[in-house]
Inverse folding.
């Protein structure tokens, strides 16, 4: 009997020893390749790293497509980095612009290697517009003039008009400081939706030039006035503008309209022509407190709505635009 127990104890000991000493290769590999950072000088946002797929997405300005890129990497001294098979010395290198780049991290002492794929996206691609930008212009200024109608009092749901009025006034007049709630308290204080006449009257009451023009050919009118230094205000049915739920892209509206037949104000401050599609660059006040994943700014800032969709949305509501000039 003693011999039986002795053998059983030995087997039990061997069993626990085997499992106690089992190696977790994935854990060890992650320890070897400690967190590192790869980037491109001039990138618009911090690189987006996906540990699960071993991929990194980097968004660069449109003009960087025709030039070489200055890449850099931060990692421990034990590791070496290779881009497309070429060793990076001094932790930085110049590489030709390319949509996809292979990155290999190697620990020569341990004989370990980890392979990543770097995806380079142009700004227009990341925003969902396309690859080939033919022209663009915007009337951004050196101050924040965006206004979210969210949380602007008990009538927030109807405050797209006062919110767009606030944006137009902030853009046109550097000294303007009235809040959306303050503007709401000047017209239709009971909370009803503003009309286009209300919008024009309010802007003129602040000595800001605001003239109504027939929209007609959307691309022609928008481009003409933006190039001349004027922003525009549209009142339209957003049911006809495509919904895009992607948390990074800026093409299309970020909310849904289940029913048609309700007007909404937006401010147009620029345009982009990408892959022969004309997009209006707009400030939409309907952010509802939601923000972009990349920079934390309101989802209504710098949205891109196609001219074809805007044409439908205005023809089915109000086929005019309010042209706003900077205050002298």
């Amino acid at each position: 009997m003693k011999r039986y127990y002795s053998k059983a104890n030995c087997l039990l000991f061997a069993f626990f020893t085997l499992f106690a000493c089992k190696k977790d290769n994935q854990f060890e590999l992650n320890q070897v390749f400690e967190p590192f950072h790869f980037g491109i000088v001039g990138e618009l946002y911090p690189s987006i790293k996906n540990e699960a797929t071993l991929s990194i997405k980097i968004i660069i300005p449109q003009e960087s497509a025709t030039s070489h890129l200055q890449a850099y990497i931060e990692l421990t001294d034990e590791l070496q980095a290779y881009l497309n098979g070429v060793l990076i010395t001094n932790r930085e290198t110049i590489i030709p612009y390319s949509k996809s780049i292979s990155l290999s991290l190697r620990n020569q002492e341990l004989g370990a290697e980890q392979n990543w794929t770097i995806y380079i996206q142009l700004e227009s691609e990341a925003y969902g517009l396309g690859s080939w930008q033919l022209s663009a212009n915007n009337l951004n200024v050196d101050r924040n003039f965006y206004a979210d109608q969210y949380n602007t009092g008990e009538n927030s749901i109807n405050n797209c008009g006062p919110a767009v009025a606030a944006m137009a006034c902030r853009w046109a007049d550097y000294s303007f400081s009235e809040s959306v709630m303050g503007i709401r308290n000047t017209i239709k204080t009971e909370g009803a939706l503003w009309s286009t006449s209300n919008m024009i009257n309010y802007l003129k009451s602040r000595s800001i030039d605001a003239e109504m023009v027939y929209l007609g050919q959307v691309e022609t009118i928008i481009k003409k006035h933006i190039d001349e230094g004027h922003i525009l205000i549209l009142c339209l049915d957003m049911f006809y503008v495509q919904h895009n739920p992607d948390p990074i892209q800026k093409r299309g509206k970020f909310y849904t309209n289940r029913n048609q037949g309700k007007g909404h104000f937006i401010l147009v401050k620029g345009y982009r022509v990408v892959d022969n599609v004309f997009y209006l660059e707009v400030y939409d006040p309907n952010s509802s407190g939601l923000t972009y994943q990349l920079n934390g700014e309101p989802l209504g800032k710098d949205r891109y709505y196609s001219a074809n969709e805007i044409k439908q949305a205005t023809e089915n509501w109000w086929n005019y635009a309010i042209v706003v000039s900077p205050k002298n």
About this structure: Residues 2-20 form the longest helix (19 residues).
